[in-house]
Amino acid sequence: MGDAVDRILTQWARERPDLDCRPMGVVGRISQLQREVLLAQRATFARHGLDVPSFDVLAALRRAGEPYQLTPTALMRTALVTSGAITQRLDRLEQRGLITRGRSEEDGRAVVVTLTAAGLAALDDTLPDHLETERRLLAGLSDDDQEALAGLLRRLLINLGRVP
């Protein structure tokens, strides 16, 4: 059984047999999966009063461990966004009482972002639902298939320079 990308590849093979269109098979499917993942994440996070960018910030702070603090620069690097984008995210989260911004105790010049008790509760409440959404998205693959796919995607991302 084929998918929509197979149909596209068949059409290109017919119309341009001189071209190797196999990259479209991979990139086209990644693009379609990206859309499916984003739609599923949006629905999951909306049930918890969050959006994807908010979840990303809260999750980064939670993963940092107690006292659940990071600098805005560290958050910007984690989220791979501009300083303006991270500022907007932090403004929204602070208005909702999910984070606070203050001066670092270690370096009074540095600003730190801290996850509040409400932010911790919001993230911890959302995370199991988020993981279930991801499990549902990957249900068509065995554990071994998921591990193999993760390895291939990791290799591709590293090859593209996406390393910490």
From TrEMBL:
PROSITE patterns for this protein: HTH_MARR_2
Gene Ontology BP terms: response to stress
Ranges of residues in domain HTH marR-type: 1-158
GO molecular function, one term: DNA-binding transcription factor activity
InterPro entries with a match to the protein in the record: HTH_MarR-typ, MarR/SlyA-like, WH-like_DNA-bd_sf, WH_DNA-bd_sf
Entry keyword annotation includes Transit peptide: no
Keywords assigned: DNA-binding
Keyword Magnesium: no
Designated name of the protein: DNA-binding transcriptional regulator, MarR family
